[in-house]
Amino acid sequence: MADHSIVVTIDKAYEPWCGVMLSSLFDQHPADRFKVYILSTCTTNELTKLSEFIHFRGHQAVICSLSPEILASAPVSHHVSLATYFRLLIPEILPGDEDQVLFLDSDMLICRPIDLLWKIPLARHGLLAVENPLISKAFKQNLGMQPEFDYFNAGLMMINLEFWRTENITQKAAEFLKTSADRITFWDQDVLNYLFQGKWHKLPYQLNAQEIFFLPAYGPQQLGISETEFELIRNHPHVVHFTGGSKPWLPGTQHPWKEAFRKVLENGPWAPAEQEN
Which domain holds residue 76? Predict the structure, then answer.
């Protein structure tokens, strides 16, 4: 039996989708036990359903309630809320005896085991993540990055907490938000990419299969990968990440993995009939 620490950052609106993601994670790792840190501006009482669900599945829930004023000046837009920036607070909020933690976005579906994430040594890296494809050199230069460095998607990160604390990442992130908010497009993900240039290890795309891999306009040639890899990402992902505004719980979504997401939803305490009561 393995013990792994997970962290999620949510507001009340994302509680059901976080529950679906965690349910799919538990389903894929029936022999493992997880400690789930929930960073939120919600109170413990407001997240009782999520906490009880985690405990019912045999895991531990730790709710870390944050003040709404934290990072209140950070820019938000579109489908995100201030909760996305709580990732920047992880090394300060989690206990000092936690030396690594897996961060997972709530708009994800775990489709296959992700044991690989706990087998890669973290000592030389600040984090493990998957590249965000097709980020231009001009975009990175505008952000203040050196254009030769890759840009990662922050929805799945194995975080080296000792590295983050030694490097004062939370403080540096706050400084970047204060001085460079006008450069930011993709919220805290931009901040993290600026701070971790050349200090992260790239994981296979299958561990964070982002929306772009499922859009008709993009094939292997446009994405710079082989046909074999493209088919593996689309048909055998370990993690499907519903990036962008096309979420599987919204009407009209055309994502090919939406039915798999809804199946997990319907088998849990956030099934549509439950939500209406």
Answer: 3-276
d(CA 58, CA 62): 13
Tell me how many domains the chain contains: 1
CATH number, residue 234: 3.90.550.10
pTM of model > 0.90: yes
- Name residue 166's amino acid: T
Residue 63 β-bridge partners: 38
CA angle 116, 109, 194 (to 5 degrees): 65
pLDDT digits (tens, 9 = 90+) for 231-243: 999 999 999 999 9
Lowest-confidence region among 97-101, 160-164, 245-249, 273-277: 273-277
Residue with tokens 């891999």: 213
Question: Do 27 and 113 contact (CB within 8 A), yes or no?
Answer: no
Amino acid, res. 236? H
Is residue 226 predicted with pLDDT exceeding 80? yes
